[in-house]
Specification:
- The chain is α+β, with helices and mostly antiparallel strands and 207 residues long.
- It has a six-stranded mixed β-sheet, covered by helices on one side.
- The termini are far apart.
Amino acid sequence: MKSYIVAAVFPAILVLAASLLFADDAQKTVTGAHLEKATFAGGCFWCMEHPFDELEGVVSVTSGYTGGQKKNPTYEEVSSGTTGHAESVQIVYDPAKISYSKLLDVFWHNIDPTVKDQQFCDSGHQYRSAIFYHSEEQKRLAEESKTALEKSGRFKGPIYTEIVPASDFYPAEEYHQHYYKKNPIRYKFYRYNCGRDERLQELWGSQ
């Protein structure tokens, strides 16, 4: 029985390991395409996967933890707010098909940048909004987009979204990956109770 289980599970482990290695290296190629990484934090990572998942040019979206001190943190540790990490998503994309500026635009329209250490019903530094840049070009574009938003007059108060260098990214446990697909009813229930869509409508309107 054990040998049967190992035979069934081992291929899946190999696929998962390969996908993690791939997502961790923005310089790798798929069908000859040069790929890059983008990393964003916008509160619950379940809710940040979906907006990017179906964009043309996005190869993968992984929920995880970044911006903290502890290596290989667990969900329980990050949720406690003691590791310094933020729930985040790491996106592997083809810049020939989608620009980093477009990803930034999608990011802004799916967060509330007017609150500090909170996103919707989730409070704590682990739920901060942040842009983790992987290059000086990403840093420049992120800062320009934030400045443009500040000057737009859309928000009365300050914008609290951090723009900081990318650091080690740790993929979250498998049950968190693409939660909105695996558990659509629970996902929608959480999102509704959290008031996320209602607040996004207030902030951004039909955009």
